[in-house]
Amino acid sequence: MRYPNGSKKRVSRANTAPASSADKYSNRGMTLEEDLNRANLYYLSRNIASIHKKPTPVQIVNVDYPKRSAAVIKEAYFKQASTTDYNGVYKGYHVDFEAKETRNKTSFPLSNIHAHQIAHMEQVIHQRGLSFIIIRFAPLEETYLMESEYIIEYWNNQERGGRKSIPYQTVKEKAYVIPFHFQARLDYLKAVDMVLEKLEEN
């Protein structure tokens, strides 16, 4: 599928990020999106938070009918550029975030992010919402929550000729690791709580 400007949407491919041998087996084959969706269902069912994946409006322009009982979409376009993957409410805060995965072991490529998403993150921050990216380093089986301020800083430096990725070591130092848990799987709100604690201290 394509955005209105003709560029293709990058599809995140996922792996697992288990914390133990038992978790490693149970989480095998789960995508980052599936982990987040399951966590959100867990939060919602227990009135912890109301966070959902945003639907993306699509315009279908070409459909093939190989047989009467089936239809195959051959061509479709995004009606508008998407903002971020998820949003909702947690502890009275607007929560807005993107989920990205990389096969890179040493850095997070900024090519995974679009300019309109950076603009959206800036708007959320301006309105005092919680904006962040959940990054999974698939080969390392590690998942992190990184506040958008750091992403925006690296993006702006890239625009001025700086590096086009965020080093893995910087992610480890600046972001919050998200471990797997039995119930919520990817219990990312624990990391959000740490962000809130930092905000309260300031």
Can you walk through the features of this model?
The chain has 202 residues and is of the alpha+beta class. The chain has helices at 21-26, 32-45, 115-126, 148-159, 168-174, 189-201; strands spanning 50-53, 58-67, 70-78, 86-90, 93-102, 107-109, 130-137, 142-147, 165-167, 176-177, 180-181, 185-186. The protein is built from six helices and twelve strands. The strands form four sheets. Strands 1-4-5-7-8-10 form a six-stranded mixed sheet, sandwiched between helices. A two-stranded antiparallel sheet has the order 2-3. It starts with 20 loop residues before the first helix and ends with a helix. Residues 1-5 and 9-29 have low confidence and may be disordered. It catalyses: Endonucleolytic cleavage at a junction such as a reciprocal single-stranded crossover between two homologous DNA duplexes (Holliday junction). It is found in: Cytoplasm.
